[in-house]
Fold this sequence. Notes:
The complex is a heterotrimer of chains A (596), B (134) and C (596).
Chain A: E1 6-11, H1 14-18, H2 21-34, E2 41-46, E3 58-61, E4 65-67, H3 75-84, E5 94-95, E6 102-103, H4 131-136, H5 141-146, H6 151-161, H7 173-182, E7 189-194, H8 203-210, H9 212-226, E8 230-236, H10 240-255, E9 271-277, H11 286-293, E10 317-321, H12 322-334, H13 336-340, E11 350-357, E12 363-368, H14 373-380, E13 390-395, E14 402-404, H15 414-419, E15 428-433, H16 438-452, H17 458-475, H18 481-497, H19 501-505, H20 508-516, H21 518-526, E16 541-543, H22 553-557, E17 563-564, E18 572-573, H23 583-587, E19 593-595
Parallel strand pairs in A: 1-2, 7-8, 7-10, 8-9, 11-15
Antiparallel strand pairs in A: 1-3, 3-4, 5-6, 11-12, 13-14, 13-15, 16-19, 17-18
Helix pairs in contact in A: 2-3, 6-7, 8-9, 8-10, 9-12, 16-17, 16-20, 17-18, 18-20, 20-21
Chain B: H1 7-27, E1 35-39, H2 42-46, H3 49-63, E2 68-72, E3 84-87, E4 94-96, H4 101-113
Parallel strand pairs in B: 1-2
Antiparallel strand pairs in B: 1-3, 3-4
Helix pairs in contact in B: 3-4
Chain C: E1 3-8, E2 11-16, H1 21-26, E3 56-59, E4 66-67, E5 78-80, H2 84-99, H3 115-122, E6 140-141, E7 145-147, H4 157-165, E8 172-174, E9 181-183, H5 200-204, E10 210-212, H6 216-223, E11 229-234, H7 236-241, H8 254-264, E12 268-271, H9 272-295, E13 305-306, H10 311-320, H11 334-350, E14 357-363, H12 367-372, E15 378-379, E16 382-383, E17 387-390, H13 391-400, H14 422-425, H15 432-446, E18 464-471, E19 474-482, H16 484-496, E20 503-507, H17 526-542, H18 552-562, H19 568-574, H20 584-595
Parallel strand pairs in C: 1-5, 11-12, 11-14, 13-20, 14-17, 19-20
Antiparallel strand pairs in C: 1-2, 3-4, 3-5, 6-7, 7-10, 8-9, 15-16, 18-19
Amino acid sequence: MAHYHTYILTCGGTGCRASHSPQIVAALQQAVDDAGLSDEVKVIRTGCFGFCEQGPIVKVVPDNTFYVSVKPEDASEIVREHIVMGRKVERLLYISPETGKHVPDSRHMEFYKPQMRIALRNCGFIDPENIEEYIARDGYAALGKVLRMKPEDVIREIMASGLRGRGGGGFPTGLKWKITREVQADCKYVVCNADEGDPGAFMDRSILEGDPHSIVEAMAINGYCTGASKGLVYIRAEYPLAVHRLQVAIAQAREYGMLGDDIMGTGFSFDIEIRYGAGAFVCGEETALIHSMEGRRGEPTVKPPYPSECGYKGAPTNVNNVETFANIPPIILRGAEWFASIGTEKSKGTKVFALAGKVNNVGLIEVPMGTTLREVIFDIGGGIKNGKRFKAVQTGGPSGGCLTEKHLDTPIDYDNLLASGSMMGSGGMIVMDEDDCMVSVAKFYLEFTVEESCGKCTPCRIGNRRLLEILERITAGHGTEDDLKELKNLAAVIKDTSLCALGQTAPNPVLSTMENFWDEYVAHVRDKSCPAHRCRDLMSYYIDPKICKGCSLCSRVCPANAISGVLKQPYSIDQTACIKCGTCMDKCKFGAIGVR
Amino acid sequence: MTKVKSIEELTAMRERLRAGMAVRENGNHPEELPQVRVGMGECGVAAGAKDTMREFFAKLAERGVSGVVTQTGCMGHCDAEPTVEVEMPGCEPVMYGNVTPDVVDEIIDSHICHGEPVRRLVLTESVVGRNIKS
Amino acid sequence: METVKLTIDGRHVEVEKGMNLVEAAASIGVKIPTLCYMNLHGLGYGNGPGACRICVVEVEGRKTLAPACKTSCTEGMVVRTHTPRVVNARRTVMELILSNHPKDCLVCPKNGHCELQELACSLGIREVKYDGEVTSFPKDMSLSIVRDMDKCIMCRRCESACNELQTVGVLSAAGRGFHAVMGTPFGESLQDTGCVNCGQCVAVCPTGALSENSNMADVLRVLADPAKKVVVQTAPAVRAALGEEFGLGGQSVTGRMTAALRRLGFDYVFDTDFAADLTIMEEGTELLGRLKAYLDGDRSVKLPLMTSCCPGWVSFVEKNFPEAEDYLSTAKSPQQMFGAVAKSYFASKLGIDRCDLVVVSVMPCVAKKSEAARSEFSHDGDPDVNIVLTTRELAQLIRQFNIDFTSLPEENFDMPLGVSTGAGVIFGVTGGVIEAAVRTAYEVYTGRKLDRIDFTELRGTDGIRSATVDFNGVPINIGIAHTLGNARKLVKEVVAGTSPYHAIEVMACPGGCIGGGGQPYHRGDASLLAMRATALYGEDADKNLRKSHENPYVQQLYDEFLGEPCGHLAHELLHTSYYDRKPVVEECIYSIKNNG
C-alpha cells in the first residue's frame, strides 16, 4: 500500500484555476511519477488557501513550504529540488514585505499568524472531492453525535454557542432553528443560502469549493433539529466549480449513507437538492431567494411572515448562509463553550472576510471576532499597496459603510460595525487609499445597488436612482449645496422606508462617506474640485514650464493631440481637447506634468 | 459497498482513514511532535537516504508513534551519510550519522520513545539532547 | 373573536387580532393614505405588496418606518401616523413617484379619476424636488385595453387582478430596478398574449397606465353623419352603475340613461335586455335539447352546457381550454344577438341597407369591444355591432354634451327592440343568466307555470355556487362561477369529465357584469357592487314580465322573422362557433417542450 510521507497541496479554487492551477496539478503529478515517487508523494488539489494575492499556491506538507505564484513550468523544479533533493525552491517562496526575506513556511507568514480557521478548517487542506478525506478530519462525526441527541438539546447547544447568521443579518442561528422547529407542519425545508452577491466577496464560494461536505453535514444536522427532511441549496449558476464540488459531495454523501433514507441506521432521512440562481443580488435576501426557488420573480416580500414560519411553498423554512452552516459541525464536536470562548461579548466565533482593494495581501481570511481592523489591514493584509496612506475601509459589501482611521482599532463584531455606521454584511472588506475619491466610491457602490434593485418598492426603485443621479451631478461638477442637503434627506428616507435590507442599506456608503468625508463633498460642490483627483470632470493635467524640457514625448503619446509646443521649450496642454487619460503624466521622464 | 450503516461504522471508518491524514495533520503543529529530518542531498541519496526515510515511516507506523518526517538538504557531513536530525519537542535537535535502515528502529525506540539519544551514532556530541529550558 | 388593544395617534383602539394598521386606523377615523394597497376581500382578493411605501407609519420599537398595510396589529402596539418623520418620508416617497411620472394629467384618460393625482393633492405636493431619468416604454394596445407603462407606478394591482383573481397570467412585473415595469410575457403586445380582455386590470389601475381603448370619437363621428341611422343598445349592468358618475349611486338610472342617449342624438334607443331574452330562448332551447338527448341515453352529448354571454370567459376558454369549446353554448352573446337582429330584422323594417344602420352598444365591459370586432360577427365586412362604449365612456359623452344628468326626465326605450323582461335585466349580475334560463327552461320543460320566480338559491356572491333545481322529478345541477379564477376550477372539472353539473354559468368579472372592466371605478369598495346587484334585482322584481319567453316582442320576432328557436334562421343569425386561440408564443413553447 502506498504510504505517503509528503503531500503537495495545490489550490484548486476558482481564482487559482484561472491562473492554470489544473495544469500545475497535472505537471506536479507527472513530475512525481517521473521521479518514481508516486507511492510516497501525493499531489492533491484542494480548495482555496486564502492567500489569493499570490496565487496559484502550492504547499508542501508536512514541512509547510509555501510556494506562491507558481506556474505549470515550475512543477518539475519543485519536485526535483524540494522532494528529491530536499532543497526548497527559494525563488518561489513568499517574500515578507516587511523584512524583504523569504518566508520558508506558511506558519511563519504574517498573513496566517493572526488567523483562526473554523469555517475554513478544511479549505486548502483536503481534497474537496473526496469524502474520505473529510471523514478522516472528523467529517460527519457531528452528524453522528447529533443523531444520538435530542433535537432540543442540539438547538440549545447552538444557542449557547452564540453563533449568529454570517450572511449579514447576524440573527442568532440557534433561535432561528428553534422557531422553525416549533412551527407545526408536515413538511419543512432547510435552505442553504449560497447566493453570494457582494462584489469581491467569495467566502461562500470558497467554502463550497474547498469543503462542500461541511455544508452537507450541517444541513442534515439542521434538518434533524428542525424536523425537515429536505434541503435545498440556492446557488448562483455562475459558480460552476462550487456547483460541481457540491454535486460531487452530495453524490458521495448519498453513496456513503450520509444523505438519503435512514441515515446511519438512525431512522432519520434527509436529502439535498441544488437550485440554481441567475445571479440577482437581491436573491440573497431570504424571501426573494425563496420566491426565486419557487419559480417566481426574485423579489422580497414584507416580513413577517418570516421563512421560519412560512417559507418555501408555504412550509416552514430554515434559511442559513454557507458560512453559518460551516460553523455548525465544529460547534457540535467541540462544544458551545469552546466556540463562545472565541470572539466578543455579543459576537462569538470567527468571521471570514474577503480582503480586497488597495492592500498588499488580497485574499480570504478568517479571524476571531474582535480582531481590529488595523490587525486585519496592516498585519494580515500587509498594509497599503505601494506605500500609500490608508484612507478608508468599506465593510459589509455594497451596502456597508466606509470606516476611517479613527475606526481602525475598533474590534470587529456585528454591533461595533453597526455603531460605526457600517455593517458586517457577508464579510466583504475593501481597502481604499489616499488616491480614492470618496464621493466616487459612494457613487460606485450605489451604481451597483441601483443596478441590482428589484424595483419593487418606490424608495429603492426610484429613490436610489435619484440618489445616484445627485452623486453623478456632484462628481461632474454640477452639484449644488441644495444637492448635499437633499442627498442627506433622501438617503435617510430610503433607509427608513425601503421594503428589504437591500434598499434600507443602499444609502449607507453615501451616508458614511458624508459623515466621514464631508470636506470632500464640499470640495466637489463648492470648489468644483476633487481632492483625490479622481473625478475627471473636476481635474486637469498641467505642464510645469519650469521643469519641462521640451522633449515632446508627451505630445507624441497624447491620444487626443491635446499637447503642443516647440522642441526644447515648455509644452502646454489644450484643456478643451484633453481627455484626461493621464498618459502624458505617466510617460514624462522629468515629472513635469501634474494634476490639479 | 461503502454505505455506512451505523454511527459505529462511521467511527471505525474515521479511525481507518485518519492514518492517511496524519502527515498533513501533524504538519500543522510539528513542534509538538518528534521531528525527523533526513538529509536528502545527492550524497545522502547516494548513500541510501531514501531507504532510511522509508524505514522511518514504516517503523513509526509500526509502533504507532506520531512524528513528522521531512527531508532536508545536505547537512554537511557527507562522510557520514545518510545523516538524520531528530528533534524532540522542547529539545534541541540531535544529528546522527551513518543512519542505515537497520539502526532506524533503535533510534526510534531509544530517542523518540524513551528520550535517550543513541550516542554512538550522534555526530555532534556537545548539544546532545540538552533540554532548552534547563 | 380574539382582539388586541393598541394606540394609534394617542387614541386607544381595540381591534380584531391580525387586522392591518390601515383598517385599524380607519376604524377610529384615521385615514392612512394608501396607493398600492387595495382591499378587495369582498371580491375574494386583495392587493398588498407593501411596495409603494406611501402608508408608512411610526411603530414604537421599530427601527424603520412600517408599511401600515402590511403591519398586523399586535397587543400594546404604539403607532403614530403623522409625525414629522412620517410626513417627510411620505412626501418624499410621493415626490419620487412623481419624479418618474408623466405630467400630462390634463389629457390623461384617468384625469379626474386618478388616485395618484388625488394623493398628490391631499399630500399638498407643490413641487417635485427630483429630476433625472424618466422611464419610457412603447405604448401597447389591444382592441379593448391601452397600456401606457410610462404611467405605471408598480403598485402591482393589475398583477393581482390578472394572476390571482383571473388566473390569466398575462401581466406581471418585468425588468429590474428603475426599469422594472408591468409587462406581458416576452414583451408581446396584449393582442398576442393570453389576455382575454376582461379589463379587471383597468378596473383597479390607480393611474392612467391601463385604460379602455376609447371609441368615443367613433361615436361622435357617426352621430354627426346624416346618412346613418344610429341605434344604441345598453347592457343591463350599465343602468345600475352609470348613476355613480353623477352622484346617483346605488340605483338603477334606466329612464335617465335613455333620455340622455336620445339627447346625444341616437335615432333609436334600444335595450340589450331584449337580446338577453332572445338569448334565453336560444340558449334555453339548446340546453333542453342537450338535456333531452342526454336523458334519452345519448352519452356523446356535451354536458354541462356552459354559458357564452361573457366574451372574457369565451376568450378564456378558447385560449386556455380549447378542448372544452364544445361545451360552450353556441348562442351568441346578447350584444351580438342584438347586432345581428338589428342589422337584419330592424334594418329591413326601416327599409334601409344594413350598412347604413350603425349599431352602437354601451357595455360595462371592455372585452365587448374585442368581441364586436370578431370576424365571425360581421357580414360582408360590415360588423353587426359597429362601436362599443363602456359605461365610463358614456358618462364622459354625457358630460361633453352639456347634459345635466340628474335633472333629466325618465324616458322609455324605443320599440320593438327596447322591451325586455326581468329575466333580461338580471343578466348583469352573477347567477342572473342561469336564473333567467331556469325560469324559461322550467316552464318549457315541465309545461307548468312557476309558482316562485325568484331562484334565490342561485344568487349570492360566493365565487363558486351550486344548486339543484327540480325539473319535475329530474334534478338539474347548476354551477355558477364568477371571476376566471373560479371558472378555471369548474372548467377543469369539465375537461376532466368529473363535472357534476348540467349547466354552468360563468361571468369573468367579480359580481358579474356589474363589476365589469368598463364600469365606473369601484376603487376597492366592494359594497358598490352589492348596491349594483340590489338595483338590478329590484328592477327585475318591479317588472310585470319576468320570464324571457313571455316577452311579446321576442315572440313577435320569432313569428315574423326567425321562426323556431334554434331553427334554421335563428342558427344562422344567433349562433356562432369557437376556435382554438392559444397564444402563438405558448404554442411554440409547448411544441419545444414536447419535441425537444
